[in-house]
């Protein structure tokens, strides 16, 4: 019997019915839908929200914004100290933080990044406004970097500039030609870029040595879709795990969908209609081919007065937005501006028609005054629907619109070159309003070659610029708030663009795949398009630990049950054989 029992146990072991060997676990991947194209992986050139979103995952800033309440917290620096006159700031970069290739992060990386921007106009393309007021930047040792400013600068703890590794970028050569696509791309953030196929996908892996600790999943994939409809359908099928910037009807269609959790939050974006005010370079040379009639502020005001913003929010946003006014969305309550009753530009087509007549643009025999071009983004539901509404609104004041919807890159090229009359656009606003305000300063217009600046609507106004300089140096918060609101009032009055709406962030995720995402702020905040990387970094897989534990114990249970069954069979057989033999004897 002993021999047969051992033989059966050996068979069970051979068949793999003993405790199963450890098996390689498939990586846990967070798949995110992306509709907007990438303009550049080079953080000195990247302007698209999609590009800066990826950049936040790859590179830390000098300081960061906490997920819970968006207060200033540790970034690459963990300490900072201003001088009494606020002209000198000393930042400490602690030991222990490393680039993804293992090289230590030091203050000399910070020095290199900011000096590259100070010395190279092209390197200032995306974030140049942050360093315009810098006198010099010096690393006194590996742990300490000192920044001196020309005048006191209130934004020194809100420098949203990706710090790059000196040992990589000092070999980059021409910044305007450097694509930053040597995979894996060396970074300091929670994820490392490993693959990018334009128009198809972007792949990143979790940085296992990230100083805050590794993410709870292995890979982060951004998957391209031609339009938001396709992205939402993919979410519904479980092909992607996270989608944002949904149209209201798409968001509503997912209500009650099994396995999908929705998130509606006040967004930090505004949507605008740019009105070419007569675009010029930084030196005052005309650029582009905007209609000359738009140089007249009376015409721009009439166009704005003919747009019913309440109707747009109701019919296009389906109520998932707030009516536009200033450049700072209402989510940032302190700096948000709303016009007073005296400043309010009420919807009034009759008054708009009268204003155009008075400006010297009477209707012709066919009822029209002049035609304008409107350019927007194909595949974005808002642009498609709002353009039809605007065609009717402009038709009411004798302005026929020629609407052209194009790709992200084509739209960017057209607005950058100022080859537009009207254009849909929008920006994400940072916690500190300085960056979005800077987009409308004269200094942010491009150079003679059309490059080197990040202007929004080619606005250049002496009054606005004077106010901008004042707010940058004002450390009394109450006084600064008032100046920022004066700037928004000036922009509203001069109308280089009409802020149409502050859209709600409409997001959805597969809660059967990922149980939790970190929102910013914690209460009522967004998952994607944050002032940080917390939404992705804090994602918690729903199944990994359960599956891992369940698979392991299920295997052991199965193996144990089979072995026990075989042993029992052997014992029974042995007993039967003993009984039969005894009877024979």
Strand content: 15-25%
Low-confidence stretches: 1-20, 545-585
Separation of the first and last Cα atoms: 19 Å
Average pLDDT over all residues? 90
Number of helices: 16
User: Which class of secondary structure composition applies to the elements?
Assistant: alpha+beta
Please give the number of β-strands: 20
Shape: globular
Major pleated sheet? 8 strands, mixed
Rg on CA atoms, Å: 30 Å
Provide structural commentary.
With 585 residues, the chain is α+β, with helices and mostly antiparallel strands. It has 16 helices and 20 strands. The chain has helices at residues 2-14, 49-58, 107-119, 166-169, 228-237, 248-253, 297-305, 309-315, 349-358, 381-395, 408-416, 434-438, 462-472, 477-494, 534-537, 544-584, and strands at 29-34, 63-65, 72-74, 79-82, 88-92, 134-139, 144-149, 191-197, 201-206, 219-224, 242-243, 260-266, 269-275, 321-323, 372-377, 401-406, 422-428, 497-510, 514-516, 540-541. Strands 11, 12, 13, 14, 15, 16, 17 and 18 form an eight-stranded mixed sheet that branches.
Topology:
Blueprint: H1 2-14, E1 29-34, H2 49-58, E2 63-65, E3 72-74, E4 79-82, E5 88-92, H3 107-119, E6 134-139, E7 144-149, H4 166-169, E8 191-197, E9 201-206, E10 219-224, H5 228-237, E11 242-243, H6 248-253, E12 260-266, E13 269-275, H7 297-305, H8 309-315, E14 321-323, H9 349-358, E15 372-377, H10 381-395, E16 401-406, H11 408-416, E17 422-428, H12 434-438, H13 462-472, H14 477-494, E18 497-510, E19 514-516, H15 534-537, E20 540-541, H16 544-584
Parallel strand pairs: 1-10, 15-16, 15-17
Antiparallel strand pairs: 2-3, 4-5, 5-7, 6-7, 8-9, 9-10, 11-18, 12-18, 13-17, 13-18, 14-18, 19-20
């Amino acid at each position: 019997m002993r021999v047969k029992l051992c033989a059966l146990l050996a068979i069970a072991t051979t068949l793999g019915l003993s405790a199963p060997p450890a098996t390689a676990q498939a990586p846990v991947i967070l798949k995110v839908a992306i509709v907007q194209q990438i303009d550049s992986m080079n953080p000195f050139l990247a302007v698209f929200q999609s590009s800066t979103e990826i950049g936040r995952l790859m590179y830390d800033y000098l300081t960061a914004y906490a997920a819970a309440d968006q207060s200033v917290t540790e970034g690459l620096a963990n300490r900072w100290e201003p001088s009494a006159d606020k002209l000198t700031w000393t930042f400490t970069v602690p030991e222990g933080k490393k680039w993804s290739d293992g090289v230590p992060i030091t203050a000399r990386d910070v020095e290199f990044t900011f000096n590259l921007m100070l010395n190279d106009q092209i390197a200032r393309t995306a974030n140049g406004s942050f360093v315009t007021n810098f006198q010099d930047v010096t690393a006194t040792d590996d742990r300490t970097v000192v920044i001196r400013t020309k005048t006191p600068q209130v934004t020194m703890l809100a420098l949203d500039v990706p710090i790059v590794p000196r040992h990589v970028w000092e070999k980059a050569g021409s910044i305007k030609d450097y694509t930053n696509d040597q995979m894996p791309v060396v970074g300091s953030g929670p994820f490392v870029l490993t693959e990018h196929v334009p128009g198809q996908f972007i792949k990143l892996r979790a940085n296992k040595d990230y100083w805050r600790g590794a993410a709870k999943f292995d890979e982060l994939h951004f998957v391209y879709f031609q339009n938001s409809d396709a992205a939402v359908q993919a979410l519904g099928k479980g092909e992607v795990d996270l989608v944002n910037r949904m149209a209201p009807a798409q968001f509503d269609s997912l209500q009650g969908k099994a396995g999908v959790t929705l998130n509606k939050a006040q967004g930090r974006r505004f949507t605008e209609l740019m009105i070419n005010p007569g675009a010029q370079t930084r030196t005052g040379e005309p650029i582009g081919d905007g209609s000359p009639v738009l140089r007249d502020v009376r015409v721009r005001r009439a166009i704005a007065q003919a747009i019913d913003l309440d109707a747009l929010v109701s019919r296009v946003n389906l109520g998932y937005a707030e009516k536009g006014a200033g450049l700072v969305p209402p989510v940032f309550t302190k700096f948000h501006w709303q016009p007073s009753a005296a400043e309010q530009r009420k919807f009034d087509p009759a008054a708009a028609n009268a204003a155009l007549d008075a400006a010297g643009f009477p209707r012709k025999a066919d009822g029209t005054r002049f035609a304008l071009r409107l350019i927007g983004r194909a595949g974005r539901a808002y642009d498609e629907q709002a353009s039809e509404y605007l065609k009717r609104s402009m038709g009411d004041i004798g302005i026929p619109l020629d609407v052209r919807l194009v790709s992200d890159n084509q739209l960017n090229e057209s607005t950058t070159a100022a080859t537009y009359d009207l254009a849909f656009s929008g920006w994400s606003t940072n916690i500190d309003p300085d960056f979005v305000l800077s987009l409308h300063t004269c200094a942010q217009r491009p150079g003679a070659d059309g490059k080197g600046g990040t202007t929004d609507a080619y606005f250049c106004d002496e009054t606005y610029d004077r106010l901008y300089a004042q707010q940058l140096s004002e450390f009394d918060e109450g006084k600064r708030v008032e100046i920022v609101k004066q700037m928004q009032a000036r922009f509203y009055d001069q109308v280089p663009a009409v802020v149409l709406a502050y859209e709600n962030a409409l997001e959805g995720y597969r809660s059967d795949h990922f149980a939790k995402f970190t929102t910013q702020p914690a209460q009522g905040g967004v998952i994607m398009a944050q002032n940080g990387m917390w939404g992705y970094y804090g994602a918690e897989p729903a199944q990994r630990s359960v599956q891992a534990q369940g698979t392991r114990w299920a295997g052991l249970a199965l193996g144990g049950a089979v072995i026990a069954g075989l042993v029992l069979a052997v014992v029974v057989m042995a007993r039967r054989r003993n009984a039969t033999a005894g009877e024979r004897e």
